[in-house]
Structures are given as structure tokens and as C-alpha cells.
Design brief:
The structure holds two protein chains of two kinds. Chain A has seven helices and ten strands. Chain A is of the alpha/beta class. In chain A, a hairpin with a 2-residue loop joins strand 9 and strand 10. The longest helix of chain A has 26 residues. The N terminus of chain A is likely disordered. Chain B is elongated, with a radius of gyration of 34 Å. The chains are: A alpha/beta, B alpha+beta. Bound molecules: adenosine-5'-triphosphate and magnesium ion (MG).
């Protein structure tokens, strides 16, 4: 991956119009197959059902966006997809493996080597500096410190954060932290990137930069991206949309993306009009 | 996706190196400087006080042992007879003993009351007839002239107290001087007459207040004295002393060894040292509570971090190891610093005590003694109890569910 932040045009996020996409031809194999998953949590005496009987697939090398209202179960679904949360029922296949059949240690190795996660919030090991935090997944993969730091430096350079290597991540701004979280997610060169509202707390410029990074990772390196976002503007980037409502996932077909986006934006406009009107009346 | 196939199918996964775990634990320790420092201080005080008290006990033990055993080799055995008429310590018996295994050296000595003077009548003293080996084992404190050897004829070495008693106060004048000695040999054999001869002084020893005279065995051999007063052997190894003694005693002789006294001293000091260590142990308990507190707070603070590390590919058992390593680092640093501190204080006290006593005591002595084994025992002990205390927080770290940890506010 080239240093895309230095390339001015990369900040402009291009909508994904099928045929324009260079990799559209070889986009057939299924990477993730989710079958009838359910997820419930015990909270005291009660059982909270978060995901209901959801099934869908995610194709290799695609850019997928999951959207839905707050509390609908998006983060929970991402946890299930990122091999950290075994579902109460159903199965998750990644690259043909029924992943939750494997031992926790093997699953941890799989996470470290094949899945890069950017969380809704920023989490750091506070006693380690930026480069050590970025290198963490490599440490756990058994890499030597020197090599891990070389790769971590590469990842930092890609996002233009190399000068921050020796700083404490806690002292950086939200945008800077989010970029470093991106570096940590890609440092082990995983096949799958999962990002939970990575732009949630960022301004447009920083948000766009993160999106550009994700897009470049998908287009240039042909990695699969699964993204949760509330930001409607980004929906057109997706090859595929997965809508989640009250824990039920609904797959949108490729052709629907434009249509859905248009509807969503129209809904939004309507809602804002209504709000404005009630303000004027009340 | 061949990469995925590889990473999931492997039954034994590579994992983080011990060196990096050490690095991460160390970073955590230095990022919480005050807390880590307080924890280490607790261990310094705890281990330091044990080291200080036990060093004191060991130093005293050494001083007492040195005084009691003196210059005698602890491998030596003194052989006497309980009844010289029935069991004779004669040359035949010595030949027999000589053949026992594990004997390094054997020496014999006659001993009689004697009277010594410059000419005729004199003062009471004890005369020993010793062979070279016996003389060597007795380690005489020679201050002038020379010691005896088997070839000497009518030569003596005597103590300063004896010299003074016969009226010679200048050592240099004594050497070469002839003295008259009378020895009533009837003590050994009623048939024998008194030995009355002139001897030349060849050496002077310091043996405190005792009137002692040493001469060669040849003097008494010539008079056909049938039995020795005492024989001394040195065993080839302390471990063989008991075997050798049993063998000698089986022939009817009595034996005694400095090891008897030493055993009693050691027994007493073992008890004393345990009591001293017990006082120090109170400090250790406080230090351990401090460490438990530190690790538990660290666990609560780091719940999220641990969850994060697991999601990033860490094994749960590595999380446990992080805590165990942290406890080990704190224990070792604390224990070593505590020992160094106690050692330095002990050395200062040793110096001061020696300086004060220099006028009265000729040899250096150590009130505090910190042998290497004590250092090793204390460090290992602290490491063991430190790990024991770390076990529970570490186990909790291992059980942290990453999802719950990351969701926590
Ligand atoms: N481990 C858990 N234990 C109990 N309840 C949980 C757990 N995880 C999620 N939930 C509940 O499940 C529901 C969905 O949570 P989730 O975080 O998946 O929502 P979300 O779609 O990501 O919301 P947001 O857009 O606000 O991030 C919430 O009501 C939440 O309280
Ligand atoms: Mg969420």
C-alpha cells in the first residue's frame, strides 16, 4: 500500500459504480458465511436477545457496510464476525472454517493474523508507546521485537504518523488515535478489516481520511472490509449493504445500494424537514 | 484463503516471546512509578530486616564457634582410654587404628606432670611428649625460636607463662638456655623411675596462663613408657567422622571431637536464627499485602487492556504470565535491594565494632555475616511467596472475558 494520505486525490472518495471497479470480475468467492446466528446475553436474571436468526454472506475482496439504528446489535454482530464472541446459536464460517469450533488459543492467533479490528472507542495499552501498541498483534504472533517494530513503522508511515512513534497514544487527539488504531489493524496484513464506526467521533477531514484508508486497503490490496457507519455519506462506497434492525440482518443486493442510499437520504431529508417544521410551529 | 487455512489448522501456534512479556511488564512497572516504588519499599523492609537479623545470628554463631572450636580442625578426633590398665593406648593400638579407613593424619602424645627449674627444684607444669603430626594438629602459637621435630634430642618448647615462672623474662635470652626437668613416670607405669634430665629451650609459645612444656616423643620412648596419654586423628572428610569414631570406639577407646560442641552450638543457633527470621517475617507479611494490593489494583485498572490484548491475538495464559512476571520483577528487585541494604548496614557495624575493640582483640571478627547461601535463600523465598501472592490476581487476569472487559465503562 502506498502512502495514500500524501496523494491528494485519495481524499476524494469515489462512489463505487460496479464496472469501474478493477476487482469486480474476480469477486465471487464467499469469505464469510453467517448461518442462523442468534446472540443473547444474561443480564442478572434476564436474558437479553440481541441478534435474531440472521444469515448472510460476505464476499471476498468486497467493501461491506452494516448500518442500523443505535442499539440494534451492530457492534455485537461485528464481535461475532471478528472471532471474539461465539454466538449463542448458529455458525460462522470464515474462508470455509467453522471458526468457533477451534480452540481459544488458535482463534486468538487467527484474530491476530487474519482480522484487523478498529473499535468504536480507542483502546490502548497505556504503558506502551505508539509503535509498541501498533506492534502488539505482531508480538502475539511471535514476531521478534525488531521485526515487529519495523513492520509497525511501515504501517505508521502509511498513515503519516511515523513522527508519533515514541509518544504515548493517550496524549494524541481523537483523529490521531483513530489513525493509529487503523495502523494497528493493518499491521499484520490481515485479509479482513472490521471497523466499528471508525469515523464516529471525527470531523469530516479526519473521517474522510480513515475512509480513504479503508477504501485503499480494499481496492489496492484486495482485502475485505466490513464497516459499521452512521454516516450516510459513506454508504455509496459499499459494494454491499447489510441493514440491521432490532437484531435482524437484511442483505441488500448490489443493485440496491444506490437505491437504498437514495431512500435513506430522502428519509433523512424528510426527518429534518419535520423537525424544522415542529420547531417553527412549537 | 490459504493464509487462514494455515493459521487455524496449526495445532501449536507461535506466541509472544518471554523477552517481550518481560518488556511489557517492565513498562507497566515504570509507568506506575510511585506505586511500584512503594511495593518495592515494602519488600526491601521485609527482606532487609530478615537479612539483617539472620546475618546477626550467623555472625554471632561464627564468633562463638571460633571461640569454642578455636584452631582445632573440626575433622579431628581425640582418642583416650577410659581405663589405662585394661585398654592400653600403646603402640600396638596405634598401629591398629592407623589401618582404619578415612584417616588423613594420626599423632600421639605423652603427658605428665613435671617440675621445671633452672637448676634443681622447680615449679609445677605439664610436659607433653608429642610427635610431629600431633604438634601440627595442635597448632601451637609460636612467638620465638622454632617448633619441635622428631629428630630433636632433649629439646623443648615452652610457654611464656612457664618462662616467667622460672624467672626468665627476656625471650631472646631464653633460647638456647638449658633447664632441669623432673618427670614422675610412675603415673604411666609403677615400675618406672623418675626422669631427671637437662633440656635445651628451642622455641617459645604463647598459651595464655598455662605452664606448658612440649618435647618429643623420643624422650619418653627411651624410658620405655608403655602407654600414650592421647592420640589424635584427622578424618579425610567431615562426613566420615562418625564412621571413624564408631570404629575407634568399638576397640574400647573414648573419642571426642570439636564437632560435638559444634553440633550443640549449631542446634542452639538454629533455634535462635529461626526466632530472628520470625521477627523479620512480620515485615514480609506486610510487604506481601502491599504487593497483593498493587497487583489487584493493576488488574482492575488494566481489565480493558487485557481484553484488548486478547482480541489482538494474545493468549489468556500470556495475560496470567504478565502478572506473574510483574510480581517476579518486584520481588527480585525488592529482595536484592533489601539484602544489599542490610549487608551495607552490617558491614558498617562490623567496622565500628572492630575499630572499638582493636586494642583488646588481635583478630578481626564479624558481628554480621551474610553468606551467599543466605542471599540465594532469601531471593528464592521472596520469589516463591511473591508468585504465590500474584497467583490470584494472575488467575483473574486469565479469566477476563475480552468482550465484557471492553464494554465496561
Ligand atoms: N455483553 C453484553 N451483555 C449484555 N448486553 C449486551 C451485551 N452486548 C450488547 N448488549 C446489548 O445489546 C444491544 C445491542 O448492543 P450493540 O452494542 O451491539 O448495539 P449497536 O448497534 O452497536 O449500538 P450503537 O450504534 O449505539 O453502537 C444493546 O441493548 C446492548 O445493551
Ligand atoms: Mg456499537
Amino acid at each position: 500500500m502506498k502512502d495514500i494520505t500524501k496523494n491528494d486525490t485519495s481524499h476524494v472518495i469515489k462512489p463505487n459504480k460496479g464496472s469501474e471497479h478493477p476487482s469486480s470480475t474476480d469477486r465471487h468467492r464467499t469469505l464469510i458465511k453467517v448461518q442462523g446466528i442468534e446472540q443473547s446475553f444474561k443480564v442478572g436474571e434476564e436474558t437479553v436477545e440481541v441478534l435474531h436468526n440472521s444469515s448472510f454472506t460476505i464476499e471476498e475482496k468486497t467493501f461491506n457496510i452494516i448500518y442500523g439504528p443505535s442499539g440494534s446489535g451492530k457492534s455485537t454482530l461485528l464481535n461475532v464476525l471478528s472471532a471474539i464472541q461465539p454466538p449463542t446459536r448458529g455458525r460462522v464460517e470464515i474462508a470455509g472454517f467453522d471458526i468457533y469450533k477451534y480452540k481459544p488459543e488458535q482463534l486468538a492467533y487467527f484474530r491476530g493474523s487474519q482480522i484487523g479490528v478498529v473499535y468504536q472507542q480507542n483502546y490502548w495499552v497505556s504503558s506502551l508507546n505508539v509503535i509498541e501498541n501498533v506492534a502488539l498483534p505482531l508480538y502475539f504472533l511471535g514476531k521478534k521485537k525488531q521485526e515487529a517494530h519495523r513492520l509497525a513503522m511501515d504501517a505508521l508511515q502509511r498513515i503519516d504518523m511515523a513522527p508519533f512513534a515514541k509518544k504515548s497514544p493517550l496524549l494524541l487527539s481523537g483523529g490521531e488515535q483513530q489513525r493509529i488504531a487503523m495502523a494497528r489493524a493493518i499491521v499484520a496484513d490481515p485479509m479482513l478489516i472490521i471497523a466499528d464506526e471508525p469515523t464516529g467521533s471525527l470531523d469530516t477531514k479526519n473521517g474522510d481520511m480513515i475512509m480513504a484508508l479503508l477504501q485503499s486497503y480494499n481496492r489496492d490490496l484486495k482485502r475485505t472490509v466490513v464497516l459499521v457507519t452512521h454516516n450516510m455519506e459513506y454508504l455509496p462506497l459499499a459494494d454491499r449493504l447489510i441493514k440491521i434492525n432490532d437484531g435482524v440482518c437484511q442483505e441488500m443486493q448490489n443493485d440496491d445500494v444506490g437505491h437504498t442510499t437514495k431512500n435513506l437520504i430522502k428519509d433523512l431529508g424528510d426527518r429534518i424537514d419535520k423537525l424544522a417544521e415542529s420547531k417553527r410551529n412549537g | 484463503m490459504d493464509k487462514a487455512r494455515l493459521s487455524l489448522a496449526k495445532s501449536k501456534r507461535p506466541t509472544i516471546s518471554l523477552r517481550l512479556l518481560l518488556h511489557m511488564s517492565w513498562q507497566n512497572i515504570i509507568s506506575k512509578k510511585l506505586r511500584s516504588w512503594l511495593t518495592i519499599m515494602g519488600i526491601i523492609v521485609g527482606i532487609g530486616s530478615i537479612a539483617f537479623l539472620v546475618s546477626f545470628g550467623l555472625g554471632l554463631q561464627q564468633i562463638v564457634t571460633d571461640n569454642v572450636v578455636g584452631d582445632n580442625s573440626i575433622r579431628s578426633i581425640e582418642i583416650t582410654t577410659p581405663n589405662s590398665r585394661i585398654i592400653k593406648l600403646d603402640s600396638q593400638a596405634i598401629e591398629k587404628i592407623q589401618k582404619f579407613p578415612h584417616i588423613d593424619k594420626l599423632g600421639v602424645a605423652y603427658s605428665f606432670p613435671a617440675s621445671i627449674g633452672l637448676s634443681g627444684g622447680g615449679i609445677d607444669s605439664i610436659i607433653y611428649g608429642v610427635d610431629d603430626q600431633f604438634q601440627e594438629m595442635t597448632t601451637l602459637n609460636l612467638i620465638d625460636g622454632r617448633l619441635l621435630n622428631n629428630k630433636d634430642q632433649n629439646s623443648i618448647v615452652l610457654s611464656t607463662a612457664t618462662l616467667k615462672a622460672i624467672g626468665i623474662s627476656d625471650n631472646s635470652k631464653a633460647l638456647g638456655q638449658d633447664v632441669e626437668i623432673t618427670v614422675p613416670l610412675q603415673y604411666a607405669d609403677p615400675e618406672l623411675k623418675d626422669l631427671e634430665e637437662s633440656f635445651k629451650i628451642v622455641g617459645i609459645i604463647d598459651s595464655g596462663q598455662d605452664n606448658e612444656i612440649f618435647t618429643t616423643t623420643a624422650v619418653f620412648d627411651a624410658q620405655q613408657v608403655p602407654i600414650y596419654k592421647v592420640a589424635k586423628v584427622i578424618a579425610d572428610d567431615t562426613d566420615n567422622i562418625n564412621e571413624l569414631r564408631t570404629q575407634i570406639e568399638a576397640s574400647g577407646f573414648q573419642t571426642s571431637s570439636p564437632i560435638d560442641t559444634l553440633d550443640q552450638i549449631n542446634q542452639l543457633f538454629k533455634f535462635f536464627n529461626i526466632i530472628l527470621a520470625g521477627f523479620g517475617a512480620i515485615g514480609i507479611i506486610v510487604a506481601l499485602l502491599g504487593m497483593f494490593n498493587t497487583l489487584t489494583i493493576s488488574l482492575l485498572e488494566r481489565t480493558k487492556e487485557i481484553g484488548l490484548m486478547v482480541t489482538l491475538g494474545g493468549r489468556r495464559r500470556d495475560m496470567r504470565r504478565l502478572f506473574m512476571i510483574e510480581a517476579s520483577i518486584l520481588s527480585i528487585i525488592g529482595a536484592l535491594s533489601g539484602i544489599v541494604l542490610s549487608y551495607v548496614s552490617g558491614q558498617i557495624i562490623n567496622q565500628v565494632a572492630n575499630a572499638n575493640a582493636a586494642s583488646r582483640v588481635s583478630e578481626r571478627f564479624n558481628i554480621f555475616s551474610t553468606p551467599m547461601w543466605l542471599v540465594a535463600v532469601l531471593v528464592l523465598f521472596m520469589l516463591a511467596v511473591g508468585l504465590l501472592v500474584a497467583f490470584f490476581p494472575a488467575k483473574r487476569a486469565e479469566r477476563i472475558n475480552p468482550i465484557d472487559a471492553l464494554r465496561r465503562e
